[in-house]
Amino acid sequence: MTHLLSAQARIVATTRIALPGVVAMAAFVVLTGLAPAVLFGQHRDSHTVLEGSATVAVVAAMLLGALQTAGDLQNGMIRALLLVEPRRLRLLAAQLLVSLGLGAAVGAAAALLADSTQAALGRLDLPAATVISIGLGTTVAASLCGLIGAAVGVVVRNAPLAACVVVLWSYALEPFISTLSYNVYIYLPGGARESLVQHVSAHSYIPPPLIGGLILAGIASAAAVLAALTLSRQDID
Amino acid sequence: MNTTVQVRRLTKRYPTVTALDDVSLDLTAGRVHLLVGPNGAGKTTLLRVLVGMARPTEGSVSLHGRPFSSLERPAQVVGACLDPIRLPSLRSGRQHLACLASAARLPRQRVEEALDMVGLPAHVASRRAGTYSLGTRQRLTLAAALLGDPQVIVLDEPTTGLDVHGVAWLRRQLRAWADAGRTVLVASHSLTELAAMVDRVLVLDRGRLVRDAARDELDHGRDIQTALFELLTTNGGRGQ
Q1: Shortest CB distance from A3 goes to which of B80, B102, B145?
Q2: What pairs with residue B7 in β-bridges?
């Protein structure tokens, strides 16, 4: 299995999507952290800024995972790999684990950048334990969402379509569901992410981070099973 | 005779078409097998089922007595060259092979050896595959097939895009591989380029194996290309 993980990591590194994706995500986190204060003199509380960076990290991780697996299916890389490792589920496991790792890196980088930006502005007014736990929550959320994104890519099998699915889900459908029923929303990836970064709401119940993490792990497991069923049953073009 | 590939009662149905219909055949070591047939005869589907890309509806395929999906080191048993048009375009040819070598647990030096074998120069191998001509893509796909130094070599339309030197090289290689005891299966609808190199001819038509003959059973002292052309226009010609 280690050789497959190593091969998959090499594939991700040479696809030239991961690095630009991480750089774009980092730039977005820094800009959204700095711009309101520097350009408009606005003061947003640190927790809101850190939550915002978690959202960006989670969407970036999902996009990277989805683009990687759907792209590999589209451009013939999966076929080339299956000729040297025909056990499809092993190959899928390697893809999902590497996306999990990449998502963790994206989440950790986003959390560190957001903390650094706030510290540089002198506005990191949260206790150290809270900053650390939000950072860990961001990392866990981004890693599991990286895996979910990779599973979406396997099911959709088309990179632009997979990207559209991720963006529409994250920025349109989930927010819409949250306005309809927050009690449903907390069981979705976005709601679980809010639990993990300790979102505070005066109106709605937000489960504790551990429960949010378990919910997200459950969703990721279901997505992995769906991807496994899809890949094992379909012919490869 | 050492049978390395066994196909038994293989049927592959798609929702609207039966691509393979009860096909049985054996491929033997030390022979070049040419799989011919008109467009849509099922040649590519047979190769795809052989290497696990498509699931058979009925029947079985085994390589060295085992299904492809249960081979421990498949790259050292089978090397397949399918559709060279689709290649990851953002990584270089060398990086592409390095990824495959890593997945196949092959030493990195096999990448350079395979590139050397197919005559892909170092500076070309360092360029992004998206910039390659069809012939260069074909060579890269061949290099990927040869990475594991396999015992069975499966090639789908391998002359597509190759220049005259490439075709000449491939003809020599087919013979060399077979003479070294490897099993070679080539699917092609080009009768002129590879016919002289073959030992056995398999004719598919509308998913059925309609002829399986040694070369000397076909040509009867005539030019093999003419014999194949007549065979296809009588057994495999849909217009007949």
Answers
A1: B102
A2: B25, B61
Residues of B in contact with A3 (CB under 8 A): 102-105
Asked if B15 and B67 sit in the same domain, the reply is yes
Band of pLDDT at residue B237, cut at 50, 70 and 90: very low
| Domain match, B73 and B155 both | yes
Task: Give the residue from chain A lying closest to B150, CA to CA.
Answer: A84
Query: Is the same domain home to B73 and B94?
Result: no
Chain A contact residues (CB < 8 Å to B): 3-4, 6-8, 10-11, 14-17, 71-72, 75-77, 79-88, 233, 235-237
Band of the pLDDT at B113, cuts 50, 70, 90? very high
Do B60 and B158 lie in one domain? The reply is: yes
Number of domains in chain B: 2
| Tokens linked to B153 | 């070599």
Q: Are residues B228 and B162 in the same domain?
A: yes
Which positions ≥6 away from B149 have C-beta within 8 Å? Answer: B76, B110
Q: What is the pLDDT of residues B121-175, one digit of tens each?
A: 888 988 988 888 888 888 898 999 999 999 999 998 888 878 888 888 888 888 8
What band does B239 get if pLDDT is binned at 50, 70 and 90?
very low
Distance CA B227, CA A138 (A): 69
Whole-number pLDDT of residue B240: 40
Domain boundary (B100, B129, B149) is at B149
Regarding whether B212 and B164 lie in a shared domain, the answer is yes
How long a stretch of residues is chain A? 237
Q: Which of A103, A93, A97, A113 is nearest to A21 (CA)?
A: A103
DSSP tag of B22: E
Query: Which contiguous run of DSSP H or E holds residue B32?
Result: strand B32-36
If you measure CA to CA, which chain B residue comes closest to A16? B90
Q: Which residues of chain A have pLDDT under 50?
A: none
Q: Give B-chain residues touching A14 at CB under 8 angstroms.
A: 90-92, 95, 99
* CA-wise closest residue to B88 among A110, A74, A93, A126: A74
Q: Which two tokens stand for residue A199?
A: 């979102």
ipTM of the modeled complex: 0.82
Q: Which of B130, B149, B168 delimits the end of a domain?
A: B149
Residue A149's pLDDT is 96
Which residue range(s) make up the domain with B116?
85-149
Q: Using a CB-CB distance cutoff of 8 angstroms, which residues of chain B are in contact with residue A12?
A: none
Indicate whether B32 and B107 sit together in one domain.
no
Chain B residues within 8 A of A10 when measuring between CB atoms: 95, 98-99, 102
B32-60 residue pLDDT tens: 999 988 888 888 999 999 988 898 999 99
d(CA A56, CA B78): 44
Residue B67 shares a structural domain with residue B139: no
